[in-house]
Inverse folding.
């Protein structure tokens, strides 16, 4: 059992499931105390107990739905009220919604934009200011290979991830003369609860082999600790992005449309 040997804290949003959960375990294994953020108090308490017992680190659970308009500011204020310094910020929380754009609920899409873009931007801004002042810190942003591929049937989700990647690449340049690093993790379709939340059960993409969240988290963690700008997780995903760079955007979009369309589309 690892024990926290320092007062280092990693704040991880979306920490109770999927990639965020696997990242939380990696940080705890390395002796980081954790500030874990998720929507459900019950899930947080369960994971807090698990991490604390298994790794012997301090766990601070914070129940917060980051879709809320001021939720990211509230999260920051709660962390500061506890006099905690965030050494690593992991912006993992994110959602999508499956379906044609014109048939989708615009309010649901706006919630996704707020979560994937607004809250991520607020948390990055507030904690990055502190990191720059200390000239120390790391941020891991959950982008996606979707950030480089137009996504019919997930138009808004892909667009939000394009923002995350572009935002991260700009910060990397702005911070190049400091000791603070920002890393974008770009997984492909991964075996998490994302597809259920996005109501994607009928998408053809689920017929393909999904990435293992354990491996995705490992790739992201290693890239973060190495100070890399970004990492595409998985050889297949690297190939997909590489090939897409050689094709017209319209061709890439049409290929993604075929991959993500409903399974019964041609029946």
């Amino acid at each position: 059992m690892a024990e926290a040997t320092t007062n280092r804290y990693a704040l991880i949003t979306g920490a109770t499931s999927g990639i965020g959960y696997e990242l939380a375990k990696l940080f705890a294994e390395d002796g980081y105390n954790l500030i874990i953020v998720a929507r459900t108090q019950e899930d947080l308490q369960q994971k807090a107990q698990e991490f604390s017992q298994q790794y012997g680190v301090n766990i601070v659970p914070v129940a917060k739905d980051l879709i809320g308009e001021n939720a990211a500011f509230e999260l920051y204020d709660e962390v500061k009220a506890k006099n905690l310094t965030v050494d690593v910020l992991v912006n993992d929380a994110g959602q999508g919604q499956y379906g044609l754009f014109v048939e989708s609920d615009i309010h649901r899409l706006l919630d996704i934009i707020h979560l994937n873009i607004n809250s991520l931007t607020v948390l990055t801004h507030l904690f990055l200011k502190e990191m720059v002042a200390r000239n120390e810190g790391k941020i891991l942003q959950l982008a996606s290979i979707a950030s480089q591929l137009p996504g019919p049937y997930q138009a808004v989700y892909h667009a939000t991830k394009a923002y995350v990647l572009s935002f991260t690449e700009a910060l990397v340049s702005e911070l190049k003369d400091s000791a603070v690093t920002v890393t974008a993790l770009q997984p492909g379709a991964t075996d998490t609860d994302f597809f259920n939340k996005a109501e994607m059960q009928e998408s053809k993409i689920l017929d393909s082999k999904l990435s293992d969240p354990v491996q995705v988290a490992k790739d992201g963690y290693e890239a973060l600790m190495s100070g890399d700008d970004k990492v595409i997780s998985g050889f297949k995903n690297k190939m997909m992005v590489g090939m897409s760079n050689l094709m017209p955007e319209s061709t890439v979009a049409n290929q993604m449309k075929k991959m993500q369309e409903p399974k019964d589309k041609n029946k």
Q: What stands out?
A: The chain has a mean pLDDT of 89. The longest strand covers residues 180-186. The chain has one domain: 9-260.
